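Handout, section 3.2

Students often ask what a structure token actually looks like in practice. Rather than define it abstractly, here is a full record for protein-glutamate methylesterase. The first block is the sequence as you would receive it.
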Amino acid sequence: MPAPSVLIVIGTSAGGMPALIRLVAQLPPTLPAAVLVVQHLAPDSTGAPLVKRLSQHTGLHCQLAVNQTHIEAGALYLAPPDRHLLVKDGHLLVTKGPRENNYRPAADALFRSAAVAYGPNVLGVVLTGMLHDGTAGLEFIKRCGGTTLVQDPAEAEFPSMPESALRAGVVDYVLPLTELSAVLQDLAGKPRPAAGPGAIPPDLLLEASIAERVVGTTEEVNQLGHLAPLTCPDCGGNLWELNEGSVLRYRCHTGHAFTAESLMESSRHSLEETLWVALRMMEERKNLLSSMASRGEGLWSVQQEERLEEIKVHINRLREFLLNGQDGGPAPAS
């Protein structure tokens, strides 16, 4: 098969396989584009059954992405579990680089790489999924002259990913899956200009090169942004707030990257884990004080009872704080 004139890059997560099947079922094997897909998968899973399922519903040649594979038109490449899928000089790069938005593979990593390599000849698509992966990636594609599309959130099983992109204002088309396939075919079949000299923003070129090498340097990240009073939730290093683009983003020098929303989600999880540990330790202290109070006598026993009542108050406050987001009701008394 010939090299594609256009890349269609797709990012999806929860509910993604049924949506992907419906989308690619309408794409012909003569499509003058290659389709590259990031579906969030568990690290210990295998992509082979998903490739088999897709193959049963489309004439595209479906395969699990392999490093250094030559990209061909009429083919669909699925990112393997726990590996980023990138593009370089007409070939696939499959790497185990740092996570982006807490994901590997990440739609943002694929979208940025494709945008830098193919410029205006990229069609970026975000389908059903949770959280925010793909939002920054669609902005990368727009900044390089490409076209961005999302599944209509009203029909998405999990609308968070397309809604996040819409809030960021980086979407050209919002369509149900039946119309999305037809528009992709139409756009892929139209002549598209090549990226002229200087058309690819220098910051995206640098970010793409960092992803290809797996790790960057503080000097390189200093070119992209300025130090923020925040630490990377994945490695504990400093975070830089990136200067370019309308989507607020952060990255550390080892390569972890986050939108502001995904960074907030990571910090929420870390805080919750810390508070549950604190609650466990306070419960243990309460049990110890209870035993001490029951075995003591006189003033000393009264003091332990007072300390016991005090820690019960703190335990109930902390438990209510932790449980309130789950059921909205007050915590039971200890």
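Discussion prompt for tutorial groups: The chain has three domains: 6-189, 215-255, 269-327. How would you have guessed this from the sequence alone?
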